[in-house]
Amino acid sequence: MHSGTALIDPKSIFEIIALAPGMRVADLGCGRTGHFVFPASKVVGERGVVYAVEIVKNILESIKSRVRSEGYNNVQPVWADIERFEKVPIPSGSLDSCFMVNVLFMLTDKVTALKEATRLLKSGGTVVVVDWARRLGPLGPLPEQLVLPEAIGRLATNLGLKMVGRVAPGEYHFGLIFQKI
Hints:
By secondary structure, the protein is an alpha/beta fold. The protein has helices at residues 4-7, 10-17, 37-44, 57-70, 110-120, 149-158, and strands spanning 24-28, 49-54, 75-79, 95-101, 121-132, 161-167, 173-180. The chain is built from 6 helices and 7 strands. Helix 3 links the parallel strand 1 (24-28) and strand 2.
């Protein structure tokens, strides 16, 4: 069986987007393990901030527990619905990067979620979208739930984002990097 890092290595994506000390980022739909949250916390350091945004309260409690027990002082757990515009309680235009990892396939309103990510970004900030390209045994979405990179690209372009790169996070995922202009 694959580990999370074997499927998607956050550090390789951080290198591509030049994540650095002092940056402010959010993982929108961070999940129970905080797969991007905790590695990002180490990169942005004590002057940076990582918002762990999640709608499922018991998942957010897992993140809060790890934040407390392991001393991640720069991680701020945030309960919010990213499918509701202007409802994520993070100031507009305040983030250097937003991560949306294995999230879009689950959402009903992908447009609003991307619009919310865009709202949170500074000019020049990036949205990193990583999602399933195909299923891995029992892991991942059903084929009819998969999102197509081309469709995400069109949605992002319509919201004023510019595609600035692609990442190959592994054989089961695709990755797109968009920049707020």
